[in-house]
Write a structure and sequence with these properties.
By secondary structure, this protein is an all-alpha fold. 67% of the residues lie in helices and 0% in strands.
Length: 184
C-alpha cells in the first residue's frame, strides 16, 4: 500500500478489505459521528416537519410517496445514517456472538470493549488493564503481555465471525485450492 493509502500492489488476497483491527480502530469515531448525525437529522426533522424521522418515513411509505424526488436531500442523509448504523450493528453483533459462544468470550468481550468500544478512549494500557480487573475471576491477574495476547485472540475470534473463516481454516482451504488437480 502506498503512502496515500491507495493499494498499489496486486496480490491474491488483499488484507485491507478484511482488516478487523482497522474496523475496531474506527469504531469509536464512527459511533460518535453517528450520534452527531442522528441528532442533527432528528433536530432538523422536528424543526421542519414537526415529527421524528421514523414517523416521517413511515408516513411517506404509507402514503406511497417516492423519496427519489427529494429536493431537501433527505434520502442521502437517511441512507448514510442507515449505512453507518448497519456497520456498527455488524460489529456489535459479531462481538456479542463471540461473547456468548467463544470459550473465552466474556473475557475477550471486555478486552475489546475497553480497548475500542467505550464512548471515551482510555488513556493507556494500564487504564484498560485496571478496568478489566473487576471482570476477571478471582486470582486471575493480567499483565501487559497477557492483555496483548487476549486482545489479539479476541480480534481473531471476531474476524472469524465477520469474514467466515478462522486463520487456520483459511490456510487449509488455500492449501487444498492450490494443490487440487482435476483427475481426468
Amino acid at each position: 500500500m502506498g503512502k496515500s493509502g491507495v493499494i498499489t500492489e496486486k496480490s491474491k488476497e488483499n488484507k485491507a478489505y478484511h482488516n478487523v483491527i482497522v474496523l475496531f480502530k474506527i469504531y469509536r469515531s464512527v459511533s460518535w459521528r453517528m450520534q452527531v448525525q442522528i441528532g442533527q437529522v432528528k433536530h432538523r426533522f422536528r424543526k421542519e416537519y414537526g415529527t421524528d424521522v421514523d414517523s416521517f418515513l413511515e408516513s411517506i411509505y404509507q402514503a406511497g410517496m417516492d423519496l427519489n424526488d427529494d429536493e431537501a436531500n433527505i434520502k442521502p442523509r437517511v441512507e448514510a445514517i442507515s449505512s453507518s448504523n448497519k456497520f456498527l450493528k455488524l460489529i456489535d453483533e459479531s462481538v456479542e456472538l463471540m461473547r456468548l459462544y467463544h470459550p473465552q468470550g466474556e473475557r475477550y468481550y471486555w478486552v475489546l470493549y475497553y480497548t475500542y468500544m467505550t464512548p471515551h478512549q482510555l488513556g493507556n494500557i494500564s487504564e484498560i488493564m485496571e478496568k478489566l480487573e473487576p471482570h476477571l475471576s478471582q486470582g486471575v491477574g493480567i499483565n501487559r503481555s497477557t492483555y496483548f495476547r487476549w486482545r489479539d485472540s479476541a480480534l481473531k475470534a471476531v474476524e472469524g465471525i465477520l469474514w467466515g473463516y478462522e486463520e487456520e481454516s483459511r490456510r487449509l482451504l488455500e492449501h487444498y485450492r492450490d494443490t487440487w488437480r482435476e483427475d481426468l
